[in-house]
Amino acid sequence: MAPIPYRPDIDGLRAIAVLLVIGFHAFPDLFPGGFVGVDIFFVISGFLITSILLLDSQGSGIQILRFYAKRILRIFPALILVLGSCIVFGWYTLLGDEYMQLGKHIFSGALFVSNLTLWFESNYFDNASVTKPLLHLWSLGIEEQFYIVWPFALAMCVRRNLPTTKWLGAVILVSLAYSCVLVFQNPTAGFYSPLSRAWELLAGAMLANFQHTKSRFVFMLSRPFLAWIGFALVAVSVVVLRASDRFPGALAVPAVLGTTLLIAANPAGSLNARILSNSWMAGLGKISYPLYLWHWPLLSFATIILSGTPAWYVRLALVLASFVLALLTYQLLEKPVRTLPRKLSIGLLLGCMVVLALLGRNILDREGLADIRLKSMVALGPDAQHDFVDWEKSGLITEASCEIPFQFPGRSYCVKKHPALAPTAVVLGDSHAFHAYWGLAEVLDETGDNLIGIGRGACVPFLDYAQGDDSDQCQPHINHMIAYAADNPEIKKVFLIFRGRYLPNSASPASVRQFHDGLERTLVRLLDAGKLVYYFLPVVETGFEPRFCLGNLPFGRRAPQSCELSRSADAFHSVLLRKEAMAVLTQHPGVHVIDPNDFLCSGDSCPVVRAGHSMFKDENHLSYPGSLYLAHALQSAIND
């Protein structure tokens, strides 16, 4: 590929661009329009790439494969290092959903489609965006998509001797018009779409084409005063624009035009030679790419860890750290890689990028690998660790044989307070019943009742009730459990307990009728058998890992959720279930209806931690201490 003359003033312009972006991300109040730094990068990229391709066309013609090899050597090394570092650092700091999101962005970043992924997630300026460590890769995605299309289009124009200037002008106008419309119809699409950004890169391409054809416009644009006008246009954009503006569209024109004028200016002119070509500015421009890659993950991870915007001095320290990392990346990675044999270096870089893409996809598909990482992330004391044991694996379960087991898919357990004695009470339901068993067994034992736990995980304890195709085989097992409880004369009390999410508020009328009739059949069967029936309404759920309320997260990170649950907010998820259940229960006044939240909550507040112990084992199940606490709190209600 033919070389083009080195212009230190363009590296200086790169320095301005990256400083503006960093300023906007770290200190948005001081640089409200600093995001136009990305638009400056776009114009520079379009100019340099097109200049290289056109100069190359004068020799042996545009060599597209050689062009892509050059791009790989330029782009891949620093990007691979940053993506790999985010994977490692995220492993020790991010929660399940956060790490899963990072995996998705690693995958899309490695494939250079981050802009398309983010397009369907949120607006670039949304508050949620600050917790995406790879948000800034959207611009790299647009550039790479441009690099895929533009060399072929330009090669076709050159080969067929088409009027490149006219074609470029037409495409620029269409893309700009599309951007102007899209920022009002769909601002997020207007920001991330490569079609609405193409005109910015093509503006630089047009300038390169003017220079290549020695158009008279080049001489007009190179006048010294136009460089100062260009500088003023960029400066005004930085000062005037705000994140809330409809951008890019027409509002990006001043920054794009200003950048074009600065590049078109005579490199020996006062502005370009004295300011942009300054050795410090040019040196900063050389590391602008790794600097751009490093600064945002540092700021984003700090925001996640601190659960809010870091103090100004923390942001300043992180910005300085990004400069150090960028310099080390440039000196110790980028430059050495370019000295290796080209085929070897390109093969290694492609291989590493494929591995990163696969890792990202694996993290996404495995939901952030939370189960694997959580125990090492959250430091718990010995007492707190006991709150989160898997009871079915811990030895808390009575191992002696019993006549009927509680089933989970793939395994069964015998849970009875006194294995040698006949049961006089049963708790029947799903895994929520299983975890409520421990407290109820202890409390009932005080009045001489021997409790047994029966049922099946993920199954509603209703007679002849099956969800969908009953792939969990709920119906035959639950029918057998209900028959066991109803037909056993020794059993006097039956507790129906299950999770309150089985009938969502959006359930169809057929599902509502099925639930209503299933509960009615079950109550009639048990009451006719002379059983004293207790129906438990749904227990409040945390919706997050309760370990965070007791343990210490890495780097002093605060728990991202409140450890005081809202009873009213939780009840919203089971409005329909509660309504239909009460419609049936009011027809059977002999059934004791118990709302566990009357005992777990005070007013609207339901604390996750009581007396130093978590009331919950995971996102929705009671812990062992929680089971004991609830049972003792409602002791008078069940021992009447």
Report on this structure.
The protein has 640 residues and is an alpha/beta fold. The chain folds into 2 domains: 8-374, no CATH class; 382-395 and 402-638, 3-Layer(aba) Sandwich (Rossmann fold), CATH 3.40.50. The protein contains 28 helices and 12 strands. The strands form 3 sheets. Strands 1, 2, 3, 4, 5, 6, 7 and 9 form an 8-stranded mixed beta sheet that branches. A two-stranded antiparallel sheet has the order 8-10. Strands 11-12 form a two-stranded antiparallel sheet. It starts with 7 loop residues before the first helix and ends with a helix. α6 packs across α9. The radius of gyration is 33 Å and the shape is elongated.
Q: Any chance you could write out the topology, listing elements then pairs?
A:
Elements: H1 8-26, H2 37-57, H3 64-93, H4 96-110, H5 114-119, H6 137-159, H7 164-185, H8 187-192, H9 194-213, H10 216-221, H11 224-240, H12 253-264, H13 270-276, H14 279-286, H15 288-306, H16 312-339, H17 342-365, H18 370-377, H19 382-386, H20 391-394, E1 406-408, E2 411-413, E3 415-416, E4 425-429, H21 431-445, E5 451-456, H22 474-487, E6 493-497, H23 509-528, E7 532-536, E8 564-566, H24 567-571, H25 575-585, E9 592-594, H26 597-600, E10 605-607, E11 609-610, E12 613-614, H27 624-633, H28 635-638
Parallel strand pairs: 1-5, 4-5, 4-6, 6-7, 7-9
Antiparallel strand pairs: 1-2, 3-5, 8-10, 11-12
Helix pairs in contact: 1-2, 1-13, 1-14, 1-15, 2-6, 2-9, 2-12, 3-4, 3-15, 3-16, 3-17, 4-17, 6-9, 7-9, 9-12, 11-12, 15-16, 21-27, 23-25
